[in-house]
Design brief:
A hairpin with a 2-residue loop joins strand 12 (about 155) and strand 13 (about 160). The chain has eight helices and 15 strands. The relative contact order is 0.18. The chain is α/β, with parallel strands linked by helices. The strands form four sheets. Strands 1, 2, 3, 4, 5 and 8 form a six-stranded mixed sheet that branches. A five-stranded mixed sheet has the order 11-10-9-14-15. Strands 6-7 form a two-stranded antiparallel sheet. Helix 1 (about 40-55) crosses helix 2 and helix 3 packs across helix 8 (about 235-245). The protein has helices at about 40-55, 90-95, 105-115, 160-165, 165-175, 175-195, 210-215, 235-245; strands at about 1-10, 10-20, 25, 30-35, 60-65, 70, 70-75, 100-105, 125-130, 135-140, 145, 155, 160, 200-205, 225. The protein has two domains: about 1-105 and about 235-245, Nucleotidyltransferase, domain 5 (2-Layer Sandwich); about 120-230, ATPase, nucleotide binding domain (Nucleotidyltransferase, domain 5).
Amino acid sequence: MNVFGVDIGGSGIKGAPADLDRGQLAQERLKVLTPHPAEPKTVVEAVRKVVTHFDWKGPVGLTFPGVIVDGHTLTAANVDKGWVGLDARALFSDALGLPVALINDADAAGLAEMAYGAGKDRKGVVLMHTLGTGIGSALFSDGVLVPNTELGHLELNGKDAEKHASAAAREEHDWSWQHWAERLDDYFALVEQLFSPQLIIVGGGVSRKADKFLPLLKPRRAEIVPAQLQNDAGIVGAAMAAAKLG
């Protein structure tokens, strides 16, 4: 079964049909740059460009980098503040002329990893973290999602944790892999203290380079592994959400 998913990120918007029988993309994805400023009108147009490229006519799943409740975007840390309080699901659905499911970006990636990837068949507490423009998080207890945790905004050393340890911060400050690993250690120590996970899955685009930084992390109680779907997890998870529309 193929369903369309779009992953809206702080730097890029990417989408493709996803094969939900196998948990992978059914076609090569299309990626466009996220407009800056990432205002609702310009982001909706970028999403429309991605969807129409495939001439897609069925339900569409969309991720968003913020808290999503009943289709409304309640926060917007790395996109324009015009999203706050917006009925974004209706906005996208009207623009596309298609049924739309809207879900937090890290929650979508986590759902995909729990169904098809590193979290499959894992019980207990599992945390998924997407390291990109910010730090996204998805929390699972015995496979059940606790939505909208947004743990990248926990306070760490007096600032948002994602300012301390995101992949974008590493690139901005040109940190070495070793230095970044030390900052990630600070973050993982914090979430481990709060949630006592058995497994931490590290996703986002930088997961393709997991061998450069995961071996540098300190040993923890939690097992820390790279996402198996890597940066396609958000698209697959978005498609999973759309599949529930029927």
